[in-house]
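pasting for the record
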Amino acid sequence: MTTEIIVSGARGRMGSAITEIARQDPEVSLKAVLEHPERLQELEHLDCLKEQDVQKVVTQTSGAVIIDFTNPDITMQNLEAAKAKGNPMVIGTTGFSSEQQEELNNAAKNLPIFMAPNMGVGINVLLEFLPKLAELLGPDYDVEVSEIHHKYKKDAPSGTAVKLGQVLGQSRGWEGDDFLRYSREGMIGERPQKEIGVQTLRGGDVVGEHTVHFFGPGERIDVTHRVHSRNTFAQGAVRAAKWINQKSPGKIYSMSDLFADILS
């Protein structure tokens, strides 16, 4: 079965990679690309609909999966159009406000939505594995997360770093995310036991690097994941589009759900 897709922000760093991966996949049909009018001419070589207006696109491509790695405001505009025409969504955008996230949660009750801050297979395997490692090491090991991205990334910390901190805290039975510490400065006192620091570095053209540090008595364990190409994320996004196209609404799906299907 062929999966029809729409790529939002098709001339962006991620959008360009997704567009090329989609063109090479025989199980995918690139139906449309969305981009700012000034950049649409750069997409003339594509044999598909090229538009700025998402409302026009979904009217002509009802049911096609929208893949969105743009910014929260554009994603929410795409969501409104998707709800009207029933287009599933794959969302890699990060930096949503709590109100926007709630709107996404509500939309997922009636629209198939797949959402992950990082579409790479490797990092998502680590999201499954690292909480178990934290459990085995126990509370004597302080956990910290650090991340490095290119200088053009607008949100900080990365959505992946936040997700890593959240799942590690949950492995220790901590609710919410008040235990996440995004910066330290001045006379802050001793490090509380119920705390996970999430630190950010920005520079150059680093695609993405995340490290989880376990500081224990007499030893330290660092687990690092490095991405060398955005194609890693693009392949995961296209894979997610093919998968979500077969799912019913009800919740926001994640890589954990996709993995569970593979293992079942």
